[in-house]
Design a protein that fits this description.
The chain is of the alpha+beta class. 38% of the residues lie in helices and 15% in strands. It has 14 helices and 21 strands. A hairpin with a 2-residue loop joins β12 and β13. α3 packs antiparallel against α4 and α4 packs antiparallel against α6.
Amino acid sequence: MMLDLRERPFTDRGSRLLVMAADDGSLWIAAARYETPLRETTVLTGLRVLAGDRELPVRRTLPDRVEFEGGAALAFAGPDTLVLTGDGGEGVHAVWDGGRAPAGGGLVLVGPGRDGAHVAAPGGPPPDGRAVLEAAAARWRDWFARMPAVPSGLRERAEQAWWTLAVNLVPIQGRQSLVPSKYGYVGLWNWDSYFHAIALRHADPGLAREQIRILLDHQRPDGLIPDVVHDHGVLAETTDLPRSDLARLAQHVGGPPVREAVPVTKPPLTAWAVWKIHQADPDPGFLAEVYEPLVRAQEWWFTRSDPDGDGLAEYLHPYSSGLDDSPIWDDGPRAEPPDLNSYLALQYDRLGDIAAALGRDPGEWRARAQALVDRMVARRWTGARFVTLVGGREADVRTPLELLPLLTGRLPADVADRLVADLRSPSFWGERPVPTVAFDDPRFDPDAMWRGPVWLNVNYLLIEGLRRSGHPETARELRDRTLAMVRDGGGLYEYWNPLTGRRAGRATSGFGWSAALFLDLAHEAFTDSADREG
Protein backbone atom coordinates (compact mmCIF):
# COMPACT_ATOMS: atom_id res chain seq x y z
CA MET A 1 0.00 0.00 0.00
CA MET A 2 1.03 3.62 -0.54
CA LEU A 3 1.03 6.46 1.98
CA ASP A 4 0.07 10.02 1.03
CA LEU A 5 1.96 11.76 3.89
CA ARG A 6 -1.18 13.73 4.75
CA GLU A 7 -4.03 11.48 5.89
CA ARG A 8 -1.54 8.61 6.07
CA PRO A 9 1.76 9.85 7.50
CA PHE A 10 4.99 7.90 7.53
CA THR A 11 5.24 6.40 10.99
CA ASP A 12 5.86 3.02 12.56
CA ARG A 13 4.56 0.65 15.19
CA GLY A 14 5.73 1.80 18.59
CA SER A 15 6.84 5.22 17.37
CA ARG A 16 5.45 8.63 18.30
CA LEU A 17 7.07 10.28 15.24
CA LEU A 18 5.01 11.19 12.17
CA VAL A 19 6.57 12.39 8.90
CA MET A 20 4.18 14.47 6.81
CA ALA A 21 4.15 16.55 3.63
CA ALA A 22 4.02 20.33 3.85
CA ASP A 23 2.34 22.50 1.22
CA ASP A 24 5.69 23.78 -0.07
CA GLY A 25 6.91 20.28 -0.94
CA SER A 26 9.11 19.84 2.12
CA LEU A 27 8.48 17.39 4.96
CA TRP A 28 7.75 18.12 8.59
CA ILE A 29 7.88 15.85 11.60
CA ALA A 30 5.74 15.94 14.71
CA ALA A 31 5.37 13.80 17.82
CA ALA A 32 2.07 12.16 18.78
CA ARG A 33 1.01 13.15 22.31
CA TYR A 34 -2.10 12.78 24.44
CA GLU A 35 -4.78 15.36 23.61
CA THR A 36 -2.28 17.62 21.82
CA PRO A 37 -2.54 18.84 18.20
CA LEU A 38 0.42 17.88 16.06
CA ARG A 39 1.18 21.52 15.25
CA GLU A 40 2.05 21.93 18.92
CA THR A 41 4.45 18.97 18.95
CA THR A 42 6.56 19.78 15.91
CA VAL A 43 10.04 18.24 15.88
CA LEU A 44 11.24 19.98 12.72
CA THR A 45 9.97 21.67 9.57
CA GLY A 46 11.31 22.28 6.08
CA LEU A 47 13.03 18.90 5.75
CA ARG A 48 14.43 18.39 2.27
CA VAL A 49 16.77 15.76 0.82
CA LEU A 50 19.49 16.83 -1.60
CA ALA A 51 22.17 15.25 -3.72
CA GLY A 52 24.79 17.92 -4.00
CA ASP A 53 22.76 21.05 -4.77
CA ARG A 54 19.89 19.14 -6.40
CA GLU A 55 16.74 18.54 -4.39
CA LEU A 56 15.43 14.98 -4.49
CA PRO A 57 11.63 14.93 -4.44
CA VAL A 58 9.67 12.15 -2.79
CA ARG A 59 9.07 9.39 -5.34
CA ARG A 60 6.74 7.22 -3.27
CA THR A 61 6.03 6.31 0.34
CA LEU A 62 5.53 2.74 1.50
CA PRO A 63 4.85 1.53 5.05
CA ASP A 64 8.56 0.72 5.52
CA ARG A 65 10.24 3.70 3.82
CA VAL A 66 10.00 7.08 2.11
CA GLU A 67 11.75 6.80 -1.25
CA PHE A 68 13.28 9.84 -2.93
CA GLU A 69 14.42 10.27 -6.50
CA GLY A 70 18.05 9.30 -6.88
CA GLY A 71 17.96 6.31 -4.54
CA ALA A 72 17.76 7.99 -1.13
CA ALA A 73 15.31 6.62 1.45
CA LEU A 74 14.08 7.41 4.94
CA ALA A 75 13.27 4.52 7.30
CA PHE A 76 12.76 3.76 10.98
CA ALA A 77 15.69 2.09 12.70
CA GLY A 78 13.75 2.11 15.97
CA PRO A 79 10.69 3.81 17.47
CA ASP A 80 12.59 7.07 18.08
CA THR A 81 15.12 6.89 15.27
CA LEU A 82 14.76 7.78 11.60
CA VAL A 83 17.66 7.10 9.27
CA LEU A 84 18.21 8.75 5.90
CA THR A 85 20.21 6.56 3.54
CA GLY A 86 21.67 7.16 0.10
CA ASP A 87 24.27 5.76 -2.22
CA GLY A 88 26.65 8.54 -1.24
CA GLY A 89 27.80 9.09 -4.82
CA GLU A 90 26.41 12.60 -5.02
CA GLY A 91 26.73 13.51 -1.36
CA VAL A 92 23.17 12.80 -0.30
CA HIS A 93 22.28 14.94 2.69
CA ALA A 94 19.36 16.65 4.34
CA VAL A 95 18.57 20.20 5.34
CA TRP A 96 15.74 21.55 7.45
CA ASP A 97 14.77 24.81 9.05
CA GLY A 98 17.65 25.62 11.34
CA GLY A 99 19.69 22.50 10.62
CA ARG A 100 21.79 20.52 8.22
CA ALA A 101 23.12 16.95 8.25
CA PRO A 102 26.70 16.35 7.14
CA ALA A 103 26.92 15.21 3.55
CA GLY A 104 27.67 11.55 3.00
CA GLY A 105 26.42 10.33 6.36
CA GLY A 106 23.18 8.75 7.43
CA LEU A 107 21.09 11.41 9.13
CA VAL A 108 19.64 10.21 12.43
CA LEU A 109 16.53 11.95 13.75
CA VAL A 110 16.04 11.12 17.40
CA GLY A 111 12.47 11.56 18.48
CA PRO A 112 10.50 12.47 21.52
CA GLY A 113 12.40 11.81 24.69
CA ARG A 114 11.91 12.89 28.26
CA ASP A 115 13.12 16.42 27.50
CA GLY A 116 11.29 16.75 24.21
CA ALA A 117 12.16 15.74 20.66
CA HIS A 118 15.51 16.70 19.21
CA VAL A 119 17.61 16.09 16.13
CA ALA A 120 21.11 14.71 16.01
CA ALA A 121 23.60 13.71 13.38
CA PRO A 122 25.18 10.32 14.06
CA GLY A 123 28.24 10.11 16.20
CA GLY A 124 30.83 7.68 15.00
CA PRO A 125 30.29 5.49 11.96
CA PRO A 126 27.05 6.11 10.04
CA PRO A 127 24.33 3.49 10.46
CA ASP A 128 24.17 0.65 7.97
CA GLY A 129 21.45 2.01 5.70
CA ARG A 130 20.92 -1.24 3.84
CA ALA A 131 20.41 -3.14 7.11
CA VAL A 132 17.94 -0.51 8.35
CA LEU A 133 15.89 -0.78 5.14
CA GLU A 134 15.95 -4.58 5.15
CA ALA A 135 14.83 -4.76 8.78
CA ALA A 136 11.99 -2.28 8.17
CA ALA A 137 10.81 -4.21 5.12
CA ALA A 138 10.88 -7.48 7.07
CA ARG A 139 8.83 -6.02 9.94
CA TRP A 140 6.09 -4.91 7.60
CA ARG A 141 6.10 -8.11 5.53
CA ASP A 142 5.51 -10.04 8.75
CA TRP A 143 2.67 -7.75 9.83
CA PHE A 144 0.82 -7.86 6.51
CA ALA A 145 1.24 -11.63 6.33
CA ARG A 146 -0.92 -11.85 9.45
CA MET A 147 -3.79 -9.77 8.08
CA PRO A 148 -7.17 -11.56 8.22
CA ALA A 149 -8.40 -12.81 4.83
CA VAL A 150 -10.87 -10.50 3.05
CA PRO A 151 -12.62 -10.51 -0.35
CA SER A 152 -10.38 -9.29 -3.16
CA GLY A 153 -12.53 -6.22 -3.77
CA LEU A 154 -11.92 -5.05 -0.20
CA ARG A 155 -8.23 -5.87 0.01
CA GLU A 156 -6.86 -2.39 -0.72
CA ARG A 157 -8.85 -0.77 2.09
CA ALA A 158 -8.21 -3.76 4.37
CA GLU A 159 -4.45 -3.33 3.95
CA GLN A 160 -4.85 0.31 4.88
CA ALA A 161 -6.86 -0.75 7.94
CA TRP A 162 -4.27 -3.33 8.98
CA TRP A 163 -1.51 -0.74 8.60
CA THR A 164 -3.58 1.69 10.71
CA LEU A 165 -3.80 -0.80 13.56
CA ALA A 166 -0.05 -1.39 13.47
CA VAL A 167 1.00 2.25 13.51
CA ASN A 168 -1.52 3.09 16.25
CA LEU A 169 0.29 0.71 18.60
CA VAL A 170 2.41 2.79 20.98
CA PRO A 171 3.68 2.33 24.55
CA ILE A 172 1.42 3.86 27.20
CA GLN A 173 2.90 3.69 30.68
CA GLY A 174 5.30 1.06 29.35
CA ARG A 175 2.62 -1.24 27.89
CA GLN A 176 1.78 -1.87 24.25
CA SER A 177 -1.48 0.00 23.68
CA LEU A 178 -3.56 0.46 20.55
CA VAL A 179 -4.64 4.12 20.50
CA PRO A 180 -7.57 5.48 18.46
CA SER A 181 -5.36 7.77 16.37
CA LYS A 182 -1.95 9.42 16.49
CA TYR A 183 -3.72 12.67 15.65
CA GLY A 184 -4.28 13.64 19.29
CA TYR A 185 -6.10 10.51 20.47
CA VAL A 186 -2.94 9.10 22.06
CA GLY A 187 -4.27 7.09 24.98
CA LEU A 188 -6.01 3.80 25.65
CA TRP A 189 -9.70 4.70 25.46
CA ASN A 190 -12.09 2.29 27.11
CA TRP A 191 -14.59 1.09 24.52
CA ASP A 192 -12.22 1.84 21.61
CA SER A 193 -10.00 -0.87 23.04
CA TYR A 194 -12.81 -3.43 22.92
CA PHE A 195 -13.37 -2.73 19.23
CA HIS A 196 -9.62 -2.82 18.57
CA ALA A 197 -9.39 -6.20 20.28
CA ILE A 198 -12.04 -7.61 17.94
CA ALA A 199 -9.65 -7.23 14.99
CA LEU A 200 -6.47 -8.10 16.89
CA ARG A 201 -7.95 -11.44 18.02
CA HIS A 202 -7.62 -12.75 14.44
CA ALA A 203 -3.84 -12.36 14.33
CA ASP A 204 -2.56 -11.61 17.82
CA PRO A 205 -5.02 -12.70 20.52
CA GLY A 206 -2.38 -12.15 23.18
CA LEU A 207 -2.18 -8.49 22.21
CA ALA A 208 -5.98 -8.33 22.15
CA ARG A 209 -6.07 -9.64 25.72
CA GLU A 210 -3.43 -7.10 26.74
CA GLN A 211 -5.76 -4.24 25.78
CA ILE A 212 -8.34 -5.62 28.22
CA ARG A 213 -5.74 -6.22 30.94
CA ILE A 214 -4.48 -2.64 30.79
CA LEU A 215 -7.96 -1.30 31.48
CA LEU A 216 -8.78 -3.80 34.21
CA ASP A 217 -5.43 -3.17 35.89
CA HIS A 218 -6.62 0.43 36.34
CA GLN A 219 -10.11 -0.48 37.56
CA ARG A 220 -11.17 1.47 40.65
CA PRO A 221 -12.07 -0.34 43.87
CA ASP A 222 -15.75 0.52 43.35
CA GLY A 223 -15.70 -1.37 40.01
CA LEU A 224 -15.53 1.55 37.57
CA ILE A 225 -13.27 0.99 34.55
CA PRO A 226 -11.73 4.38 33.69
CA ASP A 227 -12.50 6.27 30.53
CA VAL A 228 -8.86 6.63 29.42
CA VAL A 229 -5.44 5.32 30.41
CA HIS A 230 -2.89 7.86 29.18
CA ASP A 231 0.75 8.83 29.59
CA HIS A 232 0.12 10.85 32.75
CA GLY A 233 -2.38 8.59 34.55
CA VAL A 234 -6.06 7.86 33.99
CA LEU A 235 -9.26 9.78 33.33
CA ALA A 236 -11.88 8.36 35.69
CA GLU A 237 -13.75 11.50 36.75
CA THR A 238 -14.15 15.00 35.39
CA THR A 239 -15.75 18.40 35.89
CA ASP A 240 -15.55 18.98 32.15
CA LEU A 241 -18.46 19.10 29.73
CA PRO A 242 -18.45 19.52 25.95
CA ARG A 243 -18.72 23.22 25.11
CA SER A 244 -22.10 22.80 23.47
CA ASP A 245 -23.46 21.19 26.63
CA LEU A 246 -22.12 23.96 28.82
CA ALA A 247 -23.77 26.63 26.68
CA ARG A 248 -27.11 24.86 26.70
CA LEU A 249 -26.97 24.22 30.43
CA ALA A 250 -26.16 27.89 31.05
CA GLN A 251 -29.35 28.80 29.17
CA HIS A 252 -31.38 26.40 31.32
CA VAL A 253 -30.07 27.62 34.68
CA GLY A 254 -29.59 31.28 33.83
CA GLY A 255 -25.81 31.25 34.15
CA PRO A 256 -22.77 28.98 34.23
CA PRO A 257 -23.73 25.69 35.90
CA VAL A 258 -21.99 24.51 39.01
CA ARG A 259 -19.86 21.52 38.04
CA GLU A 260 -18.85 18.79 40.41
CA ALA A 261 -16.51 15.91 39.63
CA VAL A 262 -18.47 13.09 38.00
CA PRO A 263 -17.16 9.56 37.41
CA VAL A 264 -16.58 8.83 33.72
CA THR A 265 -16.17 5.54 31.94
CA LYS A 266 -17.40 4.19 28.61
CA PRO A 267 -20.28 1.90 27.57
CA PRO A 268 -20.05 -1.55 29.23
CA LEU A 269 -18.83 -3.95 26.57
CA THR A 270 -15.86 -5.52 28.36
CA ALA A 271 -17.26 -9.02 28.84
CA TRP A 272 -18.56 -8.92 25.26
CA ALA A 273 -15.04 -8.27 23.96
CA VAL A 274 -13.49 -10.84 26.30
CA TRP A 275 -15.82 -13.52 25.00
CA LYS A 276 -15.11 -12.65 21.36
CA ILE A 277 -11.38 -13.06 22.01
CA HIS A 278 -12.04 -16.38 23.76
CA GLN A 279 -14.10 -17.66 20.84
CA ALA A 280 -11.19 -16.97 18.49
CA ASP A 281 -8.48 -18.26 20.83
CA PRO A 282 -9.78 -20.10 23.92
CA ASP A 283 -7.87 -19.27 27.09
CA PRO A 284 -9.63 -20.40 30.29
CA GLY A 285 -6.84 -18.92 32.37
CA PHE A 286 -7.59 -15.45 31.02
CA LEU A 287 -11.31 -15.93 31.68
CA ALA A 288 -10.56 -16.87 35.29
CA GLU A 289 -8.26 -13.85 35.62
CA VAL A 290 -10.87 -11.31 34.46
CA TYR A 291 -14.09 -12.87 35.74
CA GLU A 292 -14.30 -11.13 39.12
CA PRO A 293 -13.23 -7.71 37.74
CA LEU A 294 -15.94 -8.05 35.07
CA VAL A 295 -18.54 -8.82 37.75
CA ARG A 296 -17.49 -5.74 39.74
CA ALA A 297 -17.64 -3.57 36.61
CA GLN A 298 -21.17 -4.80 35.86
CA GLU A 299 -22.32 -4.14 39.41
CA TRP A 300 -20.94 -0.59 39.31
CA TRP A 301 -23.58 0.47 36.80
CA PHE A 302 -26.45 -0.55 39.06
CA THR A 303 -24.95 0.55 42.39
CA ARG A 304 -23.29 3.81 41.28
CA SER A 305 -24.95 4.82 38.00
CA ASP A 306 -28.68 4.34 38.70
CA PRO A 307 -29.48 7.55 40.59
CA ASP A 308 -33.27 7.02 40.69
CA GLY A 309 -32.89 3.38 41.78
CA ASP A 310 -35.34 2.01 39.23
CA GLY A 311 -33.07 -0.82 38.11
CA LEU A 312 -32.23 0.86 34.78
CA ALA A 313 -28.76 2.38 34.67
CA GLU A 314 -28.06 5.88 33.33
CA TYR A 315 -25.11 7.73 31.88
CA LEU A 316 -24.11 10.33 34.44
CA HIS A 317 -21.93 12.24 31.98
CA PRO A 318 -21.82 12.56 28.17
CA TYR A 319 -18.28 11.14 28.10
CA SER A 320 -19.48 7.87 29.59
CA SER A 321 -21.81 7.31 26.64
CA GLY A 322 -19.03 7.71 24.07
CA LEU A 323 -21.44 9.94 22.13
CA ASP A 324 -20.08 13.21 23.50
CA ASP A 325 -21.89 15.65 21.21
CA SER A 326 -25.09 13.75 20.46
CA PRO A 327 -28.22 15.90 20.64
CA ILE A 328 -29.36 13.51 23.37
CA TRP A 329 -27.34 15.81 25.64
CA ASP A 330 -28.96 19.04 24.45
CA ASP A 331 -31.23 19.03 27.49
CA GLY A 332 -28.79 17.99 30.18
CA PRO A 333 -25.72 15.95 31.11
CA ARG A 334 -27.53 12.89 32.53
CA ALA A 335 -29.39 10.52 30.22
CA GLU A 336 -30.75 7.01 29.76
CA PRO A 337 -30.78 6.10 26.07
CA PRO A 338 -31.80 2.49 25.30
CA ASP A 339 -28.30 1.38 24.34
CA LEU A 340 -26.91 1.35 27.89
CA ASN A 341 -29.20 -1.23 29.45
CA SER A 342 -29.04 -3.24 26.24
CA TYR A 343 -25.27 -3.48 26.68
CA LEU A 344 -25.75 -4.46 30.31
CA ALA A 345 -28.20 -7.22 29.38
CA LEU A 346 -25.71 -8.50 26.81
CA GLN A 347 -22.98 -8.34 29.45
CA TYR A 348 -25.07 -10.52 31.78
CA ASP A 349 -25.31 -13.13 29.04
CA ARG A 350 -21.58 -12.95 28.36
CA LEU A 351 -20.86 -13.32 32.07
CA GLY A 352 -23.04 -16.43 31.87
CA ASP A 353 -20.93 -17.73 28.97
CA ILE A 354 -17.72 -17.08 30.91
CA ALA A 355 -19.13 -18.67 34.05
CA ALA A 356 -20.12 -21.78 32.12
CA ALA A 357 -16.66 -22.01 30.54
CA LEU A 358 -15.19 -21.89 34.04
CA GLY A 359 -17.48 -24.68 35.24
CA ARG A 360 -19.81 -22.36 37.17
CA ASP A 361 -23.59 -22.12 37.01
CA PRO A 362 -24.61 -19.47 34.43
CA GLY A 363 -28.25 -19.53 35.52
CA GLU A 364 -28.18 -16.39 37.67
CA TRP A 365 -26.63 -14.32 34.89
CA ARG A 366 -29.18 -15.57 32.34
CA ALA A 367 -32.00 -14.71 34.70
CA ARG A 368 -30.64 -11.22 35.28
CA ALA A 369 -30.31 -10.66 31.54
CA GLN A 370 -33.95 -11.57 30.94
CA ALA A 371 -35.17 -9.56 33.93
CA LEU A 372 -33.37 -6.46 32.67
CA VAL A 373 -34.82 -6.83 29.17
CA ASP A 374 -38.29 -7.35 30.62
CA ARG A 375 -37.84 -4.17 32.68
CA MET A 376 -36.80 -2.21 29.59
CA VAL A 377 -39.82 -3.41 27.63
CA ALA A 378 -42.23 -2.73 30.49
CA ARG A 379 -40.95 0.77 31.26
CA ARG A 380 -39.41 2.17 28.08
CA TRP A 381 -41.28 0.54 25.17
CA THR A 382 -44.10 2.73 23.83
CA GLY A 383 -45.47 0.17 21.41
CA ALA A 384 -43.57 1.91 18.60
CA ARG A 385 -40.09 2.57 19.97
CA PHE A 386 -37.84 2.59 23.01
CA VAL A 387 -37.65 6.07 24.50
CA THR A 388 -34.58 7.98 25.61
CA LEU A 389 -34.84 9.78 28.94
CA VAL A 390 -32.82 12.91 29.73
CA GLY A 391 -33.06 14.06 33.32
CA GLY A 392 -36.20 11.95 33.69
CA ARG A 393 -37.92 13.49 30.63
CA GLU A 394 -38.42 11.91 27.21
CA ALA A 395 -36.01 13.25 24.59
CA ASP A 396 -37.49 14.47 21.33
CA VAL A 397 -34.63 13.36 19.09
CA ARG A 398 -34.52 10.11 17.11
CA THR A 399 -31.26 8.16 17.16
CA PRO A 400 -30.34 4.54 16.30
CA LEU A 401 -29.71 3.95 20.00
CA GLU A 402 -33.45 3.24 20.08
CA LEU A 403 -32.72 0.16 17.95
CA LEU A 404 -29.91 -1.29 20.06
CA PRO A 405 -32.18 -3.39 22.31
CA LEU A 406 -31.90 -5.79 19.34
CA LEU A 407 -28.43 -6.53 20.70
CA THR A 408 -29.91 -8.36 23.69
CA GLY A 409 -31.38 -11.11 21.51
CA ARG A 410 -34.12 -11.40 24.16
CA LEU A 411 -36.87 -9.11 22.89
CA PRO A 412 -40.36 -10.44 22.16
CA ALA A 413 -40.55 -11.22 18.44
CA ASP A 414 -43.10 -8.50 17.72
CA VAL A 415 -40.93 -5.86 19.39
CA ALA A 416 -37.82 -6.97 17.47
CA ASP A 417 -39.78 -6.97 14.19
CA ARG A 418 -40.99 -3.43 14.88
CA LEU A 419 -37.44 -2.23 15.50
CA VAL A 420 -36.20 -3.82 12.28
CA ALA A 421 -39.04 -2.15 10.36
CA ASP A 422 -37.98 1.17 11.90
CA LEU A 423 -34.35 0.55 10.92
CA ARG A 424 -35.40 -0.14 7.33
CA SER A 425 -37.67 2.89 7.17
CA PRO A 426 -36.61 6.21 5.54
CA SER A 427 -35.70 7.48 9.00
CA PHE A 428 -32.60 5.29 9.20
CA TRP A 429 -32.17 3.35 5.95
CA GLY A 430 -30.48 4.64 2.84
CA GLU A 431 -27.65 3.83 0.49
CA ARG A 432 -25.31 4.36 3.45
CA PRO A 433 -27.07 3.53 6.70
CA VAL A 434 -27.16 4.18 9.66
CA PRO A 435 -27.15 7.92 10.50
CA THR A 436 -26.55 8.75 14.17
CA VAL A 437 -29.57 11.06 14.06
CA ALA A 438 -32.51 10.04 11.90
CA PHE A 439 -32.55 11.43 8.38
CA ASP A 440 -35.97 12.99 8.97
CA ASP A 441 -35.17 14.46 12.38
CA PRO A 442 -34.86 18.28 12.44
CA ARG A 443 -31.50 17.97 14.21
CA PHE A 444 -29.94 15.76 11.54
CA ASP A 445 -26.59 17.18 10.40
CA PRO A 446 -24.58 14.89 8.09
CA ASP A 447 -21.23 16.41 9.08
CA ALA A 448 -21.49 17.11 12.82
CA MET A 449 -20.06 14.57 15.28
CA TRP A 450 -22.78 12.16 16.51
CA ARG A 451 -25.49 14.35 14.94
CA GLY A 452 -25.96 12.46 11.69
CA PRO A 453 -22.74 10.88 10.36
CA VAL A 454 -22.31 7.12 10.12
CA TRP A 455 -20.06 5.54 12.78
CA LEU A 456 -18.83 2.01 12.25
CA ASN A 457 -19.25 0.95 15.87
CA VAL A 458 -22.99 1.75 15.80
CA ASN A 459 -23.40 -0.19 12.56
CA TYR A 460 -21.34 -3.09 13.89
CA LEU A 461 -23.45 -3.39 17.04
CA LEU A 462 -26.66 -3.19 15.02
CA ILE A 463 -25.40 -5.93 12.68
CA GLU A 464 -24.76 -8.18 15.66
CA GLY A 465 -28.11 -7.26 17.17
CA LEU A 466 -29.95 -8.13 13.98
CA ARG A 467 -28.38 -11.57 13.99
CA ARG A 468 -29.09 -12.17 17.65
CA SER A 469 -32.71 -11.13 17.10
CA GLY A 470 -33.36 -13.42 14.14
CA HIS A 471 -32.87 -11.07 11.17
CA PRO A 472 -29.72 -12.35 9.40
CA GLU A 473 -30.63 -11.03 5.94
CA THR A 474 -30.94 -7.45 7.13
CA ALA A 475 -27.71 -7.93 9.07
CA ARG A 476 -25.93 -9.07 5.93
CA GLU A 477 -27.31 -6.18 3.91
CA LEU A 478 -26.25 -3.62 6.52
CA ARG A 479 -22.80 -5.21 6.66
CA ASP A 480 -22.38 -5.10 2.89
CA ARG A 481 -23.55 -1.48 2.63
CA THR A 482 -21.19 -0.51 5.43
CA LEU A 483 -18.25 -2.23 3.75
CA ALA A 484 -19.05 -0.58 0.42
CA MET A 485 -19.19 2.86 2.04
CA VAL A 486 -15.76 2.42 3.61
CA ARG A 487 -14.29 0.86 0.47
CA ASP A 488 -15.42 3.81 -1.66
CA GLY A 489 -15.14 6.58 0.93
CA GLY A 490 -11.46 7.49 0.63
CA GLY A 491 -10.03 6.39 3.96
CA LEU A 492 -10.45 5.03 7.48
CA TYR A 493 -12.21 7.95 9.13
CA GLU A 494 -13.70 8.56 12.53
CA TYR A 495 -17.11 8.99 10.85
CA TRP A 496 -18.68 9.40 7.40
CA ASN A 497 -21.24 11.73 5.80
CA PRO A 498 -24.18 9.39 5.02
CA LEU A 499 -25.28 11.51 2.05
CA THR A 500 -21.94 11.59 0.24
CA GLY A 501 -20.15 8.59 1.71
CA ARG A 502 -17.05 10.71 2.21
CA ARG A 503 -15.20 11.99 5.26
CA ALA A 504 -17.58 14.01 7.40
CA GLY A 505 -16.84 17.39 8.94
CA ARG A 506 -13.88 17.35 11.30
CA ALA A 507 -13.54 13.56 11.48
CA THR A 508 -10.00 12.45 12.11
CA SER A 509 -8.30 9.97 9.80
CA GLY A 510 -6.41 6.80 10.63
CA PHE A 511 -9.07 5.92 13.20
CA GLY A 512 -8.53 2.69 15.08
CA TRP A 513 -12.00 1.29 15.60
CA SER A 514 -13.03 2.11 12.03
CA ALA A 515 -10.02 0.10 10.85
CA ALA A 516 -10.68 -2.73 13.30
CA LEU A 517 -14.39 -3.12 12.63
CA PHE A 518 -14.00 -2.79 8.87
CA LEU A 519 -11.47 -5.62 8.98
CA ASP A 520 -13.68 -7.81 11.13
CA LEU A 521 -16.71 -7.29 8.89
CA ALA A 522 -14.60 -7.81 5.75
CA HIS A 523 -13.19 -11.05 7.17
CA GLU A 524 -16.71 -12.19 7.98
CA ALA A 525 -17.77 -11.41 4.40
CA PHE A 526 -14.85 -13.51 3.15
CA THR A 527 -15.85 -16.39 5.43
CA ASP A 528 -19.47 -16.15 4.32
CA SER A 529 -18.42 -16.24 0.68
CA ALA A 530 -16.13 -19.22 1.25
CA ASP A 531 -18.90 -21.04 3.09
CA ARG A 532 -21.37 -20.39 0.28
CA GLU A 533 -18.87 -21.48 -2.37
CA GLY A 534 -18.09 -24.60 -0.34
